[in-house]
């Protein structure tokens, strides 16, 4: 359905793969036989009511009567939290007596504060599918694509899945990968039906028992975390007229709620709108299809039809993390970066010549001599001038949010890279347009402490220290190594 019915594959190939930092790994897939994958009698699907999936870090429980997510248990921390998840849609406003403003491309304005469940039934039938190992392929699994309209449960050594169908146009796979400390929710939504004349704005909502005191938290462009309070603005007295839309905020990479002990975090794979409309809840908007223009400049309703003229189908992922408040940042900081900087998958016919003439192809490569500390991210590495690279490093943690992650970190630039040797380094402003020593900053009189510009210390490229949330920019003169020269 995601490709408008253009795909015909009935199997998926799953295998564990790892990629070194700033590098690549190459894998070869070969056909072992011309027939279909051999399915032994022991691997025949077994019907059952799925009640849980589990790996070494998490246990995820489902309601056997409804098929909905019911509870998440963090086995490492021995904590659990009731979590209910469902899809809903807000009926888009076309204007009313209070305001003629319609919901559209630029404006989110539902005509009611209560969304409508996508599923017309509270009960979801489910069945259990157990699939064994692949034949002759270490660590590989051939997994049948689930074509049944009913939700199902799939389990093998690499991944465990619960397939949920909320309607003919909304489905979800709840997935646990081996070794991963998060729950993956891969949703597919669309084409959104509008034959009833109602524009619809689709959300995924999580409901918990956390006592959140009207507070929730979103990121600011993937870096700092901002506290949000429902029906509140920190610099003026708010008179709330839009109880839903007035509490929506941009979510670039994560949104979370917490009480004094536990924190539930949802990581997104794209920018979305999100909120906590009532205590203990989180919601993210995943798709929209509207029938009226909002008169903000587009001149048409938000009703893209797609290549097949039936409406757009959207697929995305949410990663769900349950942890203690003290340890939550250690997970969501690194996983959000991992999700945003996911490796590129490149497919090519096998058996071709090496890309390095006269030398065998590399199966794996890393441009780093060693991994960076987990709280440091290589933000920029790009050619600048001949023999010069622009290099930026960033500290990924905020001050005080992690016992270990929020500490200053020192990096040796001279011995960091394997693909080239750094011969000289100059520190620059963030935009790399001026040397840091040439910047003349305004002098402020602070309410607390002393003012005045801070002196720029002499740069030692073998000991570059980054403070929490700090980004440092360098121009590095380099000498590239000759392939095969050792």
Can you put this structure into words, describing what you see?
With 486 residues, the protein is mainly beta. The chain contains one helix and 29 strands. The chain has one helix spanning 328-340, and strands at 11-15, 23-25, 52-54, 58-62, 69-74, 79-91, 116-117, 127-130, 140-144, 152-155, 159-167, 170-177, 183-189, 200-208, 215-220, 224-229, 249-251, 254-258, 262-268, 272-275, 281-289, 314-324, 364-366, 376-383, 388-395, 409-411, 420-428, 464-466, 471-480. A ten-stranded mixed sheet has the order 8-10-11-12-13-22-19-18-15-16, with helices on one face. Strands 3, 4, 5, 6, 7, 14, 17, 20 and 21 form a nine-stranded antiparallel sheet that branches. β11 and β12 form a beta hairpin. It starts with 10 loop residues before the first strand and ends in a 6-residue tail after the last strand.
């Amino acid at each position: 359905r995601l490709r408008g019915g253009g795909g015909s594959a009935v199997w998926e190939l799953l295998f564990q793969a790892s990629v070194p930092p700033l590098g690549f790994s190459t894998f070869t897939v070969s056909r072992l036989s011309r027939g279909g994958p051999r399915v032994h009698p022991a691997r025949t699907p077994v019907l059952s009511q799925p009640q849980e999936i589990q790996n070494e870090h998490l246990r995820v429980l489902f309601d056997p009567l409804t098929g909905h997510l019911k509870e998440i248990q963090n086995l490492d921390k021995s904590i659990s939290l009731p979590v209910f998840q469902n899809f809903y849609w807000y009926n888009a406003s076309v204007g009313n007596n209070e305001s003629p403003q319609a919901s559209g491309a630029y404006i989110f304005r539902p005509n009611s504060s209560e969304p409508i469940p996508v599923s017309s039934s509270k009960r979801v039938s489910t069945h259990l599918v157990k699939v064994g190992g692949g034949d002759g392929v270490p660590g590989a699994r051939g997994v049948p694509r689930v074509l049944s309209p009913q939700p199902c449960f799939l389990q093998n050594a690499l991944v465990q899945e619960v397939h949920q169908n909320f309607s003919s146009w909304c489905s979800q796979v709840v997935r646990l990968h081996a070794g991963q400390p998060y729950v993956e929710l891969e949703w597919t939504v669309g084409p959104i039906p509008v034959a009833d004349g109602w524009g619809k704005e689709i959300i995924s909502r999580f409901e918990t028992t956390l006592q959140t005191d009207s507070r929730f938290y979103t990121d600011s462009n993937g870096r700092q975390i901002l506290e949000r309070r429902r029906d509140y603005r920190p610099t003026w007295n708010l008179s709330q007229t839009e109880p839903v839309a007035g509490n929506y905020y941009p979510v670039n990479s994560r949104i979370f709620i917490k009480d004094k002990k536990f924190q539930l975090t949802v990581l997104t794979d794209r920018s979305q709108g999100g909120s906590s409309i009532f205590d203990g809840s989180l919601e993210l908007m995943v798709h929209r299809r509207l029938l009226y223009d909002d008169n903000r400049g587009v001149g048409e309703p938000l009703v893209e039809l797609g290549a097949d003229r039936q409406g757009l189908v959207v697929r995305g992922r949410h990663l769900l993390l349950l942890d203690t408040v003290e340890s939550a940042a250690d997970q969501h900081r690194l996983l959000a970066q991992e999700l945003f900087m996911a490796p590129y998958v490149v497919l090519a016919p096998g058996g071709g010549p090496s890309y390095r003439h006269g030398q065998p192809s590399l199966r794996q490569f890393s441009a780093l001599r060693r991994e960076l500390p987990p709280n440091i991210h290589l933000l920029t590495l790009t050619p600048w001038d001949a023999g010069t690279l622009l290099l930026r490093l960033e500290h990924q943690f905020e001050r005080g949010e992690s016992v270990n992650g929020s500490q200053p970190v020192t990096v040796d630039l001279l011995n960091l890279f394997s693909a080239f040797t750094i011969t000289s380094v100059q520190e620059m402003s963030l935009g790399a347009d001026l040397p840091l020593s040439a910047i003349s900053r305004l002098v402020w009189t602070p309410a607390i402490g002393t003012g005045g510009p801070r002196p720029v210390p002499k740069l030692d490229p073998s000991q570059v220290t980054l403070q929490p949330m700090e980004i440092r920019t360098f121009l590095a003169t380099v000498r590239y190594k000759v392939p095969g020269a050792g």
